[in-house]
Design a protein that fits this description.
The chain is built from eleven helices and twelve strands. It has about 325 residues and is of the alpha/beta class. It folds into two domains: about 130 residues, NAD(P)-binding Rossmann-like Domain (Rossmann fold); about 180 residues, Rossmann fold (3-Layer(aba) Sandwich). The strands form two sheets. Strands 8-7-6-9-10-11-12 form a seven-stranded parallel β-sheet, with helices on both faces. Strands 2-1-3-4-5 form a five-stranded parallel β-sheet. β7, α7 and β8 form a beta-alpha-beta unit. α4 crosses α6. The longest helix is centred in the first third of the chain and has 19 residues. Bound molecules: (2R)-2,3-dihydroxypropanoic acid. (2R)-2,3-dihydroxypropanoic acid (DGY) binds next to loops.
């Protein structure tokens, strides 16, 4: 069987693909492939291991050809893949959710919340430039978290881990999701509210929704205006959940107290205005970048391909119904 991997990934897991005489080609480039490069390498393969930076739509699937049985996405999010088009063609799509990734993203979310509320990046920059003149009563004043309200938009696996960690900081936690999670409400004492209530009451709003047509630009001029003056926004979900232009405006006007962004509306581009804003913390889409998480992602992405090629139902099928009508 032929397998194409669009980019080298950390760890040794790709070696395992070479069982049973499989022909495995791994892109030699340490960058995202152009669609022409991807197609020329992937034509005729039985399995594709791709990253969230590879856009895989129906045309790409057709160009790869009728042997394609599985697209294994080395990511939890799968908005880069047209899953409906894959399902229509009987192609399996898998992703890589795990405790390790959830922990990594939840921990990174907290790193961002603390960086933002205690102005760590600004203070670090000042210290390095020699601006520290000894203790002063009024420099880099931040915000205590105790007693403040954290609003979680999307209480999935990652959102609830972020919420659990808020207990340690003695914050009040409110959340919004499609369906109430009464177990989580009891276990971690969080309260379900409407989105409008969440925006109006939260001191920190943290986004944990997948990117769908419904969530695209859900944080925009109107919703930003509903947020408390001085509130902080944290996005470790997907960039296009936030309309970046409107966010820049809400920061510039002083309506928001700051924003911490791991993801951006049009990656890898970042609105240049954000670079000059001291109340903004940015990281380059690294929320899942821990050894543990990336190792697990590699293990799962490879296992899904080996299972599918052996006609065993892989774990983490994005659309379970395709299994019965698979190619
Ligand atoms: C994911 O898995 O979706 C993250 O955004 C990248 O690891």
């Amino acid at each position: 069987m032929k397998i194409f991997v669009t980019r080298q990934i950390p760890g040794e897991h790709l070696e395992k693909l070479k069982v049973n005489g499989n022909e495995v080609v791994i892109s030699e480039f340490s960058r995202t492939l152009t669609s022409e490069e991807l197609l020329s390498k992937a034509k005729g393969v039985d399995a594709l291991l791709c990253l969230l930076t590879d856009k895989i739509d129906g045309d790409v699937m057709d160009a790869i050809g009728p042997n394609l049985k599985i697209i294994s996405n080395y990511a939890v999010g799968f908005d880069n893949i047209d899953v409906k088009a894959a399902s229509e063609r009987g192609i399996l799509v898998t992703n890589t959710p795990s405790e390790e990734v959830n922990e990594a993203v939840a921990e990174h979310t907290w790193a961002l919340i603390l960086s933002l509320t205690r102005r760590i990046v600004e203070a670090d920059e000042a210290t390095r430039r020699g601006a520290y003149r000894g203790w002063e009563p009024d420099v880099f004043l931040g915000t205590n978290l105790i007693g403040k309200t954290l609003g979680i938009v999307g209480l999935g696996r990652i959102g609830s881990m972020v919420a659990r960690r808020a207990m340690g900081f003695k914050m009040n936690v409110i959340y919004n999701k499609h369906t109430r999670d009464e177990v989580a409400e009891r276990e971690i004492q969080i309260k379900f509210v409407t989105l409008d209530e969440l925006f109006a009451s939260s001191d920190v709003v943290s986004l944990h929704v997948p990117l769908t047509e419904e969530t695209r630009h859900m944080i925009n001029k109107e919703t930003l205006a509903k947020m408390k003056k001085g509130a902080f926004l944290v996005n470790t979900a997907r960039g296009p959940v936030v309309q970046e232009r409107d966010l820049v405006e809400a920061l510039r006007s002083g309506h928001l107290g700051g924003a911490a962004l791991d993801v951006f509306d049009n990656e890898p581009n970042i609105s240049p205005e954000l670079y000059d804003m001291p109340d903004v913390v940015t990281t380059p889409h690294i929320a899942s970048a821990t050894y543990e998480a990336r190792n697990k992602m590699g293990e799962q992405a490879v296992a899904s391909i080996l299972d599918a090629l052996a006609n065993t139902k892989p774990q983490n099928l994005v659309d379970e119904t395709v299994w019965e009508k698979r190619r």
